[in-house]
Structure formats: C-alpha cells, structure tokens
Amino acid sequence: MKITIDEINERNDPYQLFLDSIKSKETLRKYKKDLQSFLKIVPVKLYKDHLGKAPRNKEPSTLANIFVKLSKKDPELAANVIATFIKNEKKIVNAGKLSANTLPNHIKPIKVLLDANRIPVHWKSLNKLLPRRETLSNDRAYTKTELQKMIQVAPDITDKLIIQLFSSGGFRLDSWNYFTWKDYIAFKNKDGSYRGGSLLVYRGDPESYWTFVTPEACSTLELYREKWKADIGAYPRPDDPLVRAVKYPMIHRLNSKGVRKRVEKIVTEIGLRPPLPPGKKRHEVQLDHGFRKYFNTMLRRAKVNFLDKEDMMGHKVGLERHYERYQEEDFERFPEYQKAIPFLTISDEERLQLENQQKQEEINQLETKNHEIDDLRKRIEELEYGPEKRNSDLLNAIHNTDTPTLEKVLRPLVHLVIEKKYSEEEKREIFKKMSESRKTGKALKLAELLPTKF
Description:
By secondary structure, this protein is mainly alpha-helical. The protein folds into 3 domains: 5-127, no CATH class; 144-346, Intergrase catalytic core (hpI Integrase, Chain A, Orthogonal Bundle), CATH 1.10.443; 386-449, no CATH class. It is 59% helix and 4% strand. It is built from 21 helices and 3 strands. The protein has helices spanning 5-10, 14-20, 25-40, 44-51, 60-73, 75-94, 103-116, 123-127, 144-153, 157-169, 215-232, 256-269, 289-301, 306-312, 320-323, 334-344, 348-385, 387-399, 405-421, 424-440, 446-449; strands spanning 184-188, 194-201, 209-213. A 3-stranded antiparallel sheet has the order 1-2-3, sandwiched between helices. Helix 2 crosses helix 7 and helix 10 (157-169) runs antiparallel to helix 11 (215-232). It is elongated. 20% of the residues are buried.
C-alpha cells in the first residue's frame, strides 16, 4: 500500500473534505444542492473586504473553498453570515412558502462543510434562531378507500406498482433512488401463488434494512416484469432499477422526484390535493409519507410485534438492532408481517381471496394435526396393547412367582383363543379392559370382557 502526494493534497481541499464526510449518495446530492444555494447568496463584497479577492467563478468547489478561508480567518463573521441566512429563511417560513421543519435541512450542509474543515462555530446559539418545529400530528394516513381510488384512476401498471409497493412496504420516498431487481425476493407457496416478498431498502448504505411487500404487490411486479420484457426485449437484469422511467428510450431509473410527480397527479385526480385555503400550509395527507403512515397504522392494527414493526420501517430501536444477530436471509420477521397482509392488501377481491386461502390453510393444518394425533394415538395403543406388549404381559405373568397357579394355567389358553379368534382391534379393546380392571381392582365377568362371539 502506498500514500501518494495527490492523496495528501486532497486533504487540503475544503470542498473535497465536505464531500468525503457524507456517506449516502442521496444525502450527498441534497447537501451539494443546498450548500450551493447558500454559497451563491453570500455577498462578493464580503470576500473582497476581508480576503482582498473575489471568487473566480460560481463553481461549488470555488465558492466552498473561499467561504472556508473566510470562516477560518474570522469564525465570528461566518456565524453572522449563517445567522443572517437563517433570518431570511424564517421570513419565507412565515410567508407559508417553506416548512419550519425543512429549514434545519438547509443549515446542515453548511455545518458539515465547516465541521469537516475544523472551523469552530457556535452552533448552539445559531440553532436557537431556528423557528419552532411544526407538529405534524394533525396529518393522517391514506385510507384503504383512497388507495383503491388511486388504483382505479392509475393510468398504467407503473403507477399501480408504485402505490402497492409504497403502501405495503412502508419505505421513505428517497428509497426509490436505490431499488434494483436484486433487492427484491419473492416468497411462493407450493402451488406457485405468492405468499409475499422481501425488499432491501438503501442497499449499500449503513441505514439499509429489510421490509416486506404483499402478495398483491408481488403479482403486479411480475406483470410489470413481463411488460418490461415486451418493451425492452429482455427481462430486467439484477442491477437494473426496479422501476424505470418510460420517457427514456434506454433503461433509466424512475427516481424519487419522478415517483412523487406520478403520485401527485393521481392524488390530485381523486380530489385529495385541492388548492390550500389562505393561512393553511399543508394538506391533510402528506403526498408520500401518507403511504408510510398507512403501513404503520395497518401493522399496529394487525398487532405486529413492536420491535419487528419498527425494524420494517427502518427505525432505530435502541440497542436492539446492534445486538441482534439473526440471519436476515432467513427472513424471521416475515411471519409477523404476514399478520398484516390482509390489512395492507388494497383490493377487496384480492383480500377475500387471501382470507379464503388462509382459512383453507388453517383447515389443512387442523386436518394435518388431527392425522398426527390419530397416528400418535395408534402408536401409543401399539405400545400399550399391541402384540409385543400382550406377549410380554403373558410371559411376565407366567414367570411371576406371585401369580396364582390356576391363572398360570388358564391365562395362556385364554390368550391363545383371543389371539386366534378376534381381530386386532377387538384384541386391543379386550386387553384395554383387562388393563383398566387391574388398575381399578374391579373384577370383570367373562361376558363383560369378551365380545359375544367368544
């Protein structure tokens, strides 16, 4: 292993340090965009007055590097620039054009840039300038009726697939920027029907986790796969995006932005996105998060284990995930998810079919258990009253010194007659009566013991 001079010099590039400190590709994309928006509005005069020069161009790396130089020279000045930026953003919040919950996300990239370059800024005092976060408790999940309407008005299979995967998987909007066909695994019954499927969220990211999808979504995904072949001429490869953008002649991912546009068009068509009245900042149902809330609500109604539910939503559950070492490929959480499948299934017809299938499976399980119990009972009877046991009891009685002489003489004769004259079922019944008689000490008459044909 060698360390090159170029690699060492990269550590002197402030913008490169910023890039290196962000692990997620999607987070990197957002942070680069938000950081550039901030850097562009920093007055050029500020650089001329304090550094004696202006940025050469408007490239992100150029603006980031010169802002870092200014911040290193005067951290207090940098803090004042950021404070002014926050105050201007608050005006946009007050005008109802920006959510108070979104504003902190515009500050995070600035903090990452300065932290990566070890510039001491008093962030605690800056955070106090941020507006009070809005409570989102008044928004709700989509209802099943609303999801059914979405499916009805969905213009093509791509939209139906988005709605079914979104609602039955419970993942976040930016997950669409990661999904490939190798992230999906279908579970099938012996007859080839779908039991459900698993979906890996954020592959390659430290925050990756497994969730599951309904048989309904699996069936639509299979139809979508066939349509893919009809359109492209071949089935999708493992590394191909799970859902493709149809406007491109080549295979191109339908990213989160494209998914959001499609959902917004459908939701507007069913009347869930009317123009907001004056003073109201958000709709009753969040466009993408409404699916996630639906998922959470249905899992709670199905009484899914809390830790399993949180894990399927990608939530951190304290030390549980850190110490958990079950094999994910075994999908041990799937039985818990199965409890919620009837609740998550959108189509009434599909749900009734699923319920009938589950009832039939329960009947089959009961029948299997009954057969097992019957087999067990027969094995027990074989051990207690079968030929080996009967012969063993006879020999023990003959060799037992406590057995009366008359019984030693008569018992083999009775035994021989019974073994020759009666069926196996009748013989077991006779010896069962004899065993019960010995246990209770009650004497049996011959007529009570033997069938009439003796």
